[in-house]
Amino acid sequence: MKEYGGYIELETFHGKVFHEKAIALNCGRGALEYLCEAKMIRKLYLPYFLCDSVPNLCKKTNIEYEFYHINEEFEPVFTKEIGANEWLYIVNFYGQLSNEHLKNWKQRYDRVIVDNAQSYFQMPVEGLDTLYTCRKYFGVADGAFLYSDTRLSKEIPQDESFERMHFLLGRYERSANEFYGEYVANNKLFATEPVKRMSRLTENLLHGIDYDIVAKRRQENFDFLDAEFRDINELNLKSVYGAFMYPLLIQNGSEIRKVLQKEKIYIPTLWPNVLKECPVDSLEYHYAADILPIPIDQRYGKEDMKRIAEMVKKTMSIKEE
After folding, report:
1. Contact between residue 120 and residue 135 where contact means Cβ atoms under 8 Å apart
2. Which of 11, 13, 74, 301 gives a 20 to 30 Å CA spacing to 97?
3. pTM for the structure as a whole
4. Beta-carbon count within 10 A of 167 CB
5. Cα angle vertex 279, ends 70, 112, to 5°?
6. Above 80 in pLDDT, residue 318?
């Protein structure tokens, strides 16, 4: 029964959600699990350069998986023929794979899944199963979108987010350090969460975002850092609308990351599992250890990018002495 009166809750926002036509789910893992069940997928071909959440999901759902390498441009090095109920899983690292490139893989193998977790503003290739995650781009506790021509017929419960919002609300008014433990715990939660529909709270928050401003700010910050680091970055990058982070690949990146942390510039190691699973002399190990994914999101402007660039260069010069 609807309630009337009482105290007023969080405002309801009425803007458009960027992925309005996609299936709205609780998390990226949930989106992949949904797709695997809907498509009756029995085996996935995965890049070595990948967080362990996807292999762990495969184990949980009894899906076979096999790894393949990527090249220096983040493209799959894959020539196998895939069988029935087998799918090639392509990660669009830092948004560096164009839709034209992804379309070629679709034409070659047909059964392809694109992980656009790092390219939220890149619309999917028509007919290509594509998933997105919200937490990497916006201040929400969960949320994912899936584009697919196949839907599950069974009823899926709706998620609730209100008990997971504390670390976000705290981070808004205080420092990230105070709530980092809660943030990590929230991330770990999704390893065991079943597939659910996106919560009303997360969907509402996504209706309140000015996506044009977010995407433009991210691209401007990306382009600024690329101009600063183009001569020393081992990666040859293309500009990305609504970029995820700026990936700076340099020697001894792992050591520079530690120094920057003391200056309150937090550069994540996105896939620490790769450092345990891949040989030290592999490209995947080098990328996991030495790519510095520099934050360029909508919270920051040109002056912030200047400070980060100056600190990175200063730290590099000290390491070289």
Report:
1. no
2. 301
3. 0.95
4. 19
5. 25
6. no
Where does the chain have alpha helices with state H?
Answer: 28-39, 53-61, 99-109, 166-173, 176-189, 200-206, 211-229, 253-262, 272-277, 283-290, 302-320
What pLDDT, on a 0 to 100 scale, did the predictor assign at position 141? 95
Element containing residue 248 per DSSP (H, E): strand 245-249
Sign of CA dihedral 46, 52, 54, 58: positive
Query: Minimal CA–CA distance to 88: which of 115, 59, 62, 61?
Result: 115
Pairing of strands 76-77, 64-70: antiparallel
Pick the CATH number of 211-320 from 3.20.20.150, 3.10.20.90, 3.90.1150.10, 3.30.565.10: 3.90.1150.10
- Separation of alpha carbons 34 and 151, rounded Å: 8
Residue 260: pLDDT over 80: yes
Q: Is 89 helix (H, G, I), strand (E, B) or coil?
A: strand
For 110-128, the pLDDT digits (tens) are: 999 999 999 999 999 999 9
Angle CA 232–236–239, to nearest 5: 110
pLDDT tens sequence across 127-167 = 999 999 999 999 999 999 999 999 999 999 999 999 999 99
pLDDT at site 252 = 87
Looking only at the bridges linking them, the beta strands covering 129-133 and 144-147 are antiparallel
Digit-coded pLDDT (tens) for 65-111: 999 999 999 999 999 999 999 999 999 999 999 999 999 999 999 99
Q: Which CATH class is domain 23-205?
A: alpha beta
Give domain limits for the chain: 23-205, 211-320
What are 175's two structure tokens? 């420092």
Compute the mean pLDDT over every residue in the chain, rounded to the nearest whole number: 94
